[in-house]
Amino acid sequence: MCLGIVYVMDEPDDELITSVFARACPSRGVLADVTGRWGGLALAALHEGSYRFNALRRRVDGVSEKMLAQTLQSLERDGLVRREVQATIPPRVEYSLTPLGAQVAERMQALIDLLEGEIVQVVEAQQAYDRTHA
Question: What predicted TM-score, i.e. pTM, was given to this entire model?
Answer without folding.
Answer: 0.84
